[in-house]
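WARN no homologs supplied; continuing
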Amino acid sequence: MSYQKRTAALASVAALAGSAVFMAAPAARADVVDVNYKCQTPIGVKTAVSPIDIKGVKSGSGYKLTMSWQKGVSSSPVELGKGAMSPSATIKLGGADSGTVAVSGPANQAAIPANTPIKINDLTGTYTPKATGKVTFTAAVLTIKALGTTTTCTPTNSPGPSLTLDVTAAGGSSGSSGSTGTTGSTGSGTGTDSSGTLPKTGPDDSVIALGTLGGTVLLAGAAGTLWLTRRNQTARARR
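OK structure emitted
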């Protein structure tokens, strides 16, 4: 094989190994999910549909979750002045973990006219993994407190998860089954160890192995190129 062909072949192998490292990197999955709410209000039952988005961002040994409503839910027969409405909600965990995560947010920053869908501000909370594996985060009960009354909105359409994360139990132990989901998301995600770095789960171990393979191939390619170059130089000198 000629010098040029050997060099091209080594470069191709190294490039493929590098690509495999990036393709194997795990990622969080986030979806905007329509949630059909049935709200028990002081004046009767109301229904509303709102797309829900949940994001998770690594924060210390857990995740900061952010739950967002893209449409308003319920309404009030009277105007709600600034700061009169306080929302909160729960996020249901599934998969490797179980339970719920509480999220909350600020009161309304502007007056809400009467008989107008109430826009919920982003709600945030913290999730600390109790188990290792894939955990799903699904919108659960929404609670609205205003003017001394409480409105409870419950999903009726069994919505799917808005977020899925690969996590590691705090402390690195496998933990019992149980999932979480509040404030933060990522989405993209995994748990962390005490140093604040992402803990290594099965997929991450594969990434490290592939990264090592890629580095080895690159070094081998560089060494082969150097050897071939010196060999050609020696041959020219003998001529």
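The radius of gyration is 27 Å.
OK
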